[in-house]
From TrEMBL:
Keyword presence, Secreted: no
Protein name, per record: DUF4396 domain-containing protein
Pfam assignment, any one: DUF4396
Membrane-spanning residues: 7-29, 41-58, 79-99, 111-128
Domain (DUF4396) ranges: 2-140
Keyword Nucleus: no
Organism: Micromonospora solifontis
Alphabetized InterPro entries for the sequence: DUF4396
Keywords tagged on the record: Membrane, Transmembrane, Transmembrane helix
């Protein structure tokens, strides 16, 4: 169960990274003179938006109540895992870019995507414990077949 839920979190984060990377590089966005910071903010926000979208489309009800229920379930059951996963992934990307390569890695390079894959594996293992804690706390009750 923990593996499935951690992979669910990883899906949000990896899709968010792909979406944000394309947008940041296509628009040449920079923050404080570096592309790295805008990519980090974009990755995190995109991961959260993908997670909210996943929750929204699995909720019952009308649009207003459906949206609030999705937000509530995301905040309760996914935000911690997504945040830990993203922190680990983005920390890895920052270390590799700033300490190893000493230059901006571009999405046209296979090395960039290899670093994202390695960071995603690190993020998965980092998010494992928080996900397990959320399951034990009851924030992931839908997996057990009981409604929240």
């Amino acid at each position: 169960m923990t593996t499935i839920e951690t992979l669910h979190c990883a899906t949000h984060c990896v899709l968010g990274a792909i979406i944000a990377t394309v947008i940041v590089f296509a628009l040449s966005l920079e923050l404080f003179g570096k592309r790295l910071w805008s990519e980090f903010i974009g990755d995190y926000l995109a991961a959260a938006m993908v997670g909210l979208a996943f929750r929204y489309f699995t909720e019952d009800g009308t649009s207003g109540r459906r949206a609030w229920a999705a937000i509530r379930r995301f905040l309760r059951g996914d935000l911690l895992s997504v945040s830990v996963f993203e922190f680990a992934l983005l920390g890895w990307l920052a270390l590799t870019e700033l300490l190893v390569f000493h230059e901006t890695l571009y999405p046209s390079s296979p090395v960039f995507w290899l670093m994202v894959q390695i960071g995603s594996i690190i993020g998965f293992f980092a998010a494992w414990r928080p996900t397990l804690w959320l399951i034990r706390r009851g924030a992931k009750e839908e997996l057990l077949g009981t409604p929240q």
